[in-house]
Amino acid sequence: MGKTLIFGTALVDALMNVPSVPTSGLNVLGDFLEYQVGGCAINAYCGYRYAGAEGDLFVPVGRGANADRITEHLKKIGVKLTS
Q1: Closest CA relative to residue 15, chosen from 35, 42, 29, 37
Q2: pLDDT tens column, 7-27
Q3: pTM of the model as a whole
Q4: Is there a contact between 66 and 44 (Cβ–Cβ < 8 Å)?
């Protein structure tokens, strides 16, 4: 089997604890827990690698605080970064 190219999105989620799920039209305040990097492409890539398959990841990463979080996560999971 050849190498697979996985491409798509990279996102940053803000995880929070909420006391209850609000009903339609209402709001609740949440307690911030952490930021977590994900998105369809990164999640698929991690699953692919976990299964022992070989592949490359292509996700556009811009500039700013979230882009920095994404870049650090990509380095942490061993993705080779190019400009």
Answers
A1: 35
A2: 999 999 999 999 999 999 999
A3: 0.79
A4: no
